[in-house]
Amino acid sequence: MRNLWVRRGGTLQVVLLALVATATTSAIRVSTVREYCNPPAEVRGVGDLSPVIHLEVKWLLSSIHSSGALTLTPDKQRVIPYFSNIAMTALAGRMPPIVGNYIDWYLDNINMPDRWGAFGTIYDYRVSGDNLIPTRNYDSADSYSATFLTLMRRYYESTGDLEFVRRRKERTDVVAGVILALQDKYGLVRVKPKDSTKYLMDNCEDFRGLMDWAFLLDALGDKQSSAMYRARAARIASAVEYRMWDENRGVYAWRIDRANYPSKPAWTKWYPDAVSQLYPATNGLIPASSARAGLLYDKFNRSFPYWPDVEIRHGFPWGMVAQSAIVQGDYARVSEFVKSTGAKFVENGGPHPWYCLESGMFILVSDSMVEWSKQAPKD
Fold first, then answer.
1. pLDDT (tens digit, 9 = 90+) per residue, 194-242?
2. At what angle do helices 169-182 and 200-220 cross, to 10 degrees?
3. What's the distance, Cα to Cα, between the start and end of the chain in Å?
4. Which of 12, 66, 256, 299 could form a disulfide with 198 if both were Cys (CB 3.0 to 4.6 A apart)?
């Protein structure tokens, strides 16, 4: 079937070729994460991943614009900073100067203010030769800011360069202020100015972003500001629990709509319903080791047992789901995802719908597989 992926705020629309495969699931063994975390030796690992990781790093580097921005694909037609922020985390430990240039590009282009009067936001861009033309719009003000803060922490942890963070502290604080300005009196964060919708996925990213900025402020010695940001992050977590968690159904609302009503998810719908249920644990809003996180992950796998095989599922690979599997310690499914995605996309030069976020996530997931294989027990 065909579907339309509208990411959060609705301004970025990408056609999914076939999000749910027509193949029946009866031939696919359904197992809980607890069964699947101890696979037989023949399904462990994916061999030497260094060649395929190297190949994908080169692909991602080819998407960098002369300005320092990261475009969606090597054809360099658009820049969507939310996707770029996440993709750049994969290069932080490998290419610090390139990531540093991207961080400076981002900070040099924050709006002071934007056309809605918000400070610290950033527009999407279209590419015209060496020029980037702002669209004067963005999909979600909150998540763009949150993922940038997470990138800043990743850069610092990869390089140890605290002075780099210190010199950019004032402008990064303006970016963090976007989330604070959009936080309502109950603690949830609106998607952007003039839109009161609160999304579960965004709020989880917002929580993580504020916690990451608080971590950096601690490193900078600004304990007072760090405590304030942690308190605001705690308000997000409390509000998600109070406003979005449905104890009777054992699910989170995937959004609070503009009429202030929670939208209940259907486990038969991949995005945003089912995928959103993985975000609280993946972003640290709830402990990954908690019974709730395990239950939600198990429900997801019962609903979509074939998700690691992109040949069956089609559409976007969704490396973000593989990241949630890593958080749950489910390296058997991660291994299957890496092999399937590498064969279909990486080794074929990144055909549609491959783009920078999937590229970065593939690198990060593959890196995790390499680290896990070093520690996994040998038979």
1. 999 999 999 999 999 999 999 999 999 999 999 999 999 999 999 999 9
2. 150
3. 42
4. 256
DSSP state of 183: B
- Domains of the chain plus CATH, in order, are 1-61+265-379 (no CATH), 64-261 (1.50.10.10)
Please report which helix (H) or strand (E) contains residue 106, including its range.
Answer: helix 96-108
Using DSSP's 3-state secondary structure scheme, residue 47 falls into coil
Where does residue 291 rank: exposed (0-12), middle (13-18), buried (19+ CB within 10 A)? exposed
Q: What is the pLDDT of residues 60-117, one digit of tens each?
A: 999 999 999 999 999 999 999 999 999 999 999 999 999 999 999 999 999 999 999 9
Gyration radius (Cα) of the chain, Å: 20
Taking only the tens place, the pLDDT of each residue in 111-125 is 999 999 999 999 999
Nearest to 149 by CA among 125, 171, 134: 171
Strand intervals (E) in the chain = 3-6, 13-16, 78-79, 125-128, 131-134, 198-199, 245-246, 251-252, 255-256, 262-263
Eight-class DSSP state of 354: -
Spatial separation of the C-alpha atoms in residues 258 and 25, rounded to whole Å: 36
Query: Is the backbone of residue 76 left (phi > 0), alpha (psi -120 to 50) or beta?
Result: left
